[in-house]
Amino acid sequence: MQKKKYHVFLSFRGEDTRQNLVDHLFELLSPAGVCVFLDNERLRKGEDIGLSLKQAIQGTYIHIPIFSPNYAKSAWCLKEVMEMSRSKGLITPLFYGVEPADVKYPDQRPMYADAFNAHDLNRRHKPETV
């Protein structure tokens, strides 16, 4: 097995989770010796995942997408999940303010189904992302 740079990669929608859940997770994991990748950059709409972010995802053992009410509204978050699935690493989702049934395809509840439909209508993604 190839040695990875990070133990955990956190994927999250900042407006939902940065100030509460994400910061707390980081503060708990880091002192315990867990190397956490936390993307603190503010990205512009439509911007593609950069090489450094792809490398961080590929160089991580455990990926944690934090599904929250606005997570699927972000094309960027969906791109991160797609890259996680390509990485062949362990994906352990957390559900914050949503239930697994809200997210599960093809029977998403309106919160996620509406977000995916909006991406489709606005052509803000490649079809394989959603």
UniProtKB/TrEMBL annotation:
Pfam families: TIR. InterPro entries: TIR_dom (IPR000157), Toll_tir_struct_dom_sf (IPR035897). Residues 4-130 form the TIR domain. GO terms for molecular function: NAD+ nucleosidase activity, cyclic ADP-ribose generating. GO terms for biological process: signal transduction. PROSITE patterns: TIR (PS50104). Signal peptide: none annotated. It catalyses: NAD(+) + H2O = ADP-D-ribose + nicotinamide + H(+). Its EC number is 3.2.2.6. The keyword NAD applies. Keywords: Hydrolase, NAD. It is an enzyme of class 3 (hydrolase). This is ADP-ribosyl cyclase/cyclic ADP-ribose hydrolase. It comes from Taxus chinensis (Chinese yew).
